Amino acid sequence: MAKDPAVLLYTQDFLVGTMTMNYEQKGKYIHLLCLQHQKTKLTLKDLQTVLTEEDIDVFEKFPLNSDGFYYNIRMYEEAIKRKNYSESRRNNRSKKTSDLDVINLSKRYDETYDTTYVPHMENENENENEDVNIIVNETEIKNVNENVNVNKVQYNQVITNKDTKELIKHFDDLFSDV
């Protein structure tokens, strides 16, 4: 499983927690948070590479743990929450929809709307979006049909008032395919 490329950053908490830092220290702090997220833990060398003696406020944000590594506790907790959330979503997705369900749904859609059947998708994001697209397409088709019928009725009323049989026949031919 690939490393999660993101973690939540609560901007208000960041602004409040860095209120006494200057802009350079805030930059170093966010840099170290990102580094911790990527490496999971920081060494003293990691901190020394980024920080100077004047950056004591930033250094204090990364306490030494009993395992000999430095961690920002909040970053550690948020990364764990994000990992657990992603795993729960992955597990729920696999329980709800099997590959067979997606194939059957695709077949029903294809039979209804006469599109080209594709028995597999390129990635799981397309599988997630397929249900939404089907619902949107069904709604759009219904709306188009309703609009055509309304326009046909309105047009027939206007033409009937003009009493022009040729135009009625011409437009009836146009709407006969709908």
Count the helices. How many?
8
Rg from Cα = 30 Å
**What is the global morphology?**
elongated
**Could you estimate the helical fraction of the residues in percent?**
55-70%
Total domain count: 2
Strand fraction: under 5%
Alpha-beta content class:
mainly alpha
Strand elements, count: 0
Question: How are the SSEs placed, and which strands pair?
Answer:
Layout: H1 11-17, H2 23-39, H3 44-50, H4 56-59, H5 73-96, H6 99-113, H7 124-162, H8 165-175
Helix pairs in contact: 6-7, 7-8
Q: Could you describe the 3D structure shown?
A:
- This protein has 178 residues and is mainly alpha-helical.
- It has 2 domains: 86 residues, no CATH class; 77 residues.
- It contains 8 helices and no strands.
- Helix 6 packs parallel to helix 7 and helix 7 packs antiparallel against helix 8.
